[in-house]
Specification:
Length: about 375
């Protein structure tokens, strides 16, 4: 089966994602000749979308064109062939059953994280105790971070991150859970992988040019998130003409960086970055339409936990009191095919998330409901 990133011109917008009413987003035909060739394949151009892509109706399912090689995207016949291939590949990805969701439990080792800064480590709850609590709450993976990435946060020097993370890794390895390291720095990632961590959670989407080659060498899993700018500047970059379409294109740009560096597709998980360079309304749109990103053909992570997109909906709650809202958002994402969910807590709220996923995808593996 041809994957979206295996088609020619994978780096070119606009990637196929499903839209309301059974329609699809895809590259614009650019000419009446291309429109006619598409119509002959059962793909009807229904007009432009705000980001310059087009909305398509599918009269019949278009098969993946066999033997599609690189060609001239200005040529109407080739362009029609290429657009149909994108739509067909996206449709086949949507038809695949996602893996049952796994829970990343957040362990912040900073004193300035937005909801639990300073609560774990010196002056707070013992790290091992907090991790054991998360294990009891059904966490599959511990996600350790030593740098706050809340809006407006400043970067933490690599050495400071390493000094926080290495003792924590040593403490947590005996618990037998995989360790994910939340860092944008390849130097920090390298030190932690050598110390026994097995995954990297990079909110910058592989922005450090040394990160993707490092992941490829280690063969480990990487969660690569969409963000514009940096945590200090990201809320200045929330302008989107068509959010879900542009998000799909920018996530596939991240995927191309990964593949070009030698990262395999089974190592890569994409995260749309709820709350990162997104307004509250945009973050809620991502939660509502999360499943459309499955058309990209790669596993997805959702990270809604305690974030400010819930603040106006739950005005009586501090960030650390938003777990109920977090579980609601997580359940919506899981029911749309998120394979990984990143949360501060698990427990009975996580039961609700897994039930939502099992109802939406009854053939998922690994779903075992606890009594």
């Amino acid at each position: 089966m041809v994957k979206p990133w295996e088609l020619p011109w994978a780096e070119v917008p606009h990637h196929a994602v499903p839209l309301a009413g059974g329609t699809w987003r895809g590259p614009s035909p650019l000419s009446s000749a291309c429109q006619g060739a598409l119509a002959a394949m059962g793909v009807i151009d229904m007009g432009r979308l705000p980001d310059g892509s087009s909305r398509y109706g599918l009269v019949r399912a278009a098969d993946i064109p066999v033997g599609l090689e690189y060609g001239d995207l200005e040529n109407p016949a080739y362009r029609a062939h290429w657009i149909a291939a994108r739509l067909a590949a996206g449709g086949k990805m949507m038809a695949l059953e996602p893996a049952a969701p796994q829970l990343l439990g957040i362990l912040n080792l900073t004193n300035d994280s937005f909801s639990d800064g300073g609560k774990v480590g010196p002056g707070g709850v013992d790290l091992s105790y907090r991790a054991q609590c998360l294990a009891i709450e059904q966490v599959d993976i511990f996600d350790l971070g030593a740098e706050s990435t809340r809006p407006g946060a400043q970067a933490v020097p690599d050495q400071v991150q390493v000094e926080r993370l290495l003792p924590a890794i040593e403490q947590l390895l005996p618990l037998g859970k995989p360790l994910s390291i939340d860092t944008r720095s390849a130097a920090v990632a390298a030190a932690c992988l050598e110390a026994g961590a097995s995954m990297i959670n990079d909110v910058s989407g592989l922005a450090d040019p040394k990160m993707a080659p490092l992941i490829a060498r280690h063969g480990c899993k990487v969660f690569a998130m969409h963000m514009r700018g940096t945590p200090a500047t990201m809320q200045e970059h929330c302008d989107y003409d068509f959010l879900m379409g542009e998000l799909a294109d920018e996530l596939m740009q991240i995927a191309q960086v990964a593949f070009d560096a030698g990262i395999e597709s089974d190592q890569l998980v994409l995260d749309p970055g709820i709350g990162f360079a997104k307004t509250a309304a945009q973050s809620r749109e991502i939660v509502a339409d999360f499943g459309a990103l499955r058309a990209l053909g790669l596993p997805l992570l959702a990270g809604p936990s305690r974030k400010s997109f819930m603040a106006d909906l739950l005005p009586h709650c501090r960030p650390d009191q938003r777990d109920g809202g977090s579980f609601g958002a997580a359940a919506l994402c899981a029911a749309q095919g998120a394979s990984f969910i990143r949360l501060h807590r698990g427990g009975r709220g996580w039961d609700a998330v897994r039930v939502a996923a099992a109802c939406a995808f009854p053939n998922q593996n690994k779903v075992v409901l606890q009594p």
